[in-house]
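@channel sequence for tomorrow's demo:
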Amino acid sequence: MTVTLFIPCFIDALYPRVGISMVQLLEQLGHRVECPDDIACCGQPAFNSGCWPEARAVADPVLTRLRSSEVVVVASGSCGAMLKKFYTDLFAGTGREDEAATLSGKVWEFSDFLVRCLGVTDLGARFPARVTFHDGCHGLRELGIKTSPRRLLERVQGLELIEMTDTETCCGFGGTFSAKYPMISTAMGEVKCAAAQATGADYIVSNDSSCLMHLQGLLTVRKQPVKTIHLAEILASR
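structure tokens (generated this afternoon):
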């Protein structure tokens, strides 16, 4: 099939290796991949801040560009939830409700697409390390993604998955939340980092680079040895 890859703006700007890994994996599975360069942000920052007219101005070209896609795979549970769940709210009463609903049925978060849509769990990856997994809030709570990334990690050669306590606790990033409430955000992140460190893991893995960016910042400032890495990068490792 032809997979339209939606790369969130922060991955495009800061973590291009995540997108490259996704392209490599999907092509390895025999799919044609397109990555539109005429769209970027899904509009979530403005949407979450209550600025819906501004969010629609950003989301309009995204909806127009993706409405004819066969399937849309997103490199983030957060942006995936925006396209799949919140566009129907954002475009309600605008005359584009049906387009948003149609798009919703085509959108998949990356790990869920591999496992639940393609039926793939083993990508031949090898990553000899101890890892612990962080569930991003939007992927977990809005999209219901819990088992798919873990099933993929379980099939990676040499990898040991160690679950942290309170694995479903928010890391504190929350996009604009971390900007509005930095002290609360930092405190929440420190709790999550401590839980990860207690497992003895070498890496914190997630399917959301935004969460990993927040956690890596805290780990780096405190000179902690634990590193962060996106799930797609592990799956592309050999």
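heads up for whoever presents: Strands lie at 2-6, 32-34, 71-74, 107-109, 126-133, 157-161, 203-206, 227-230.
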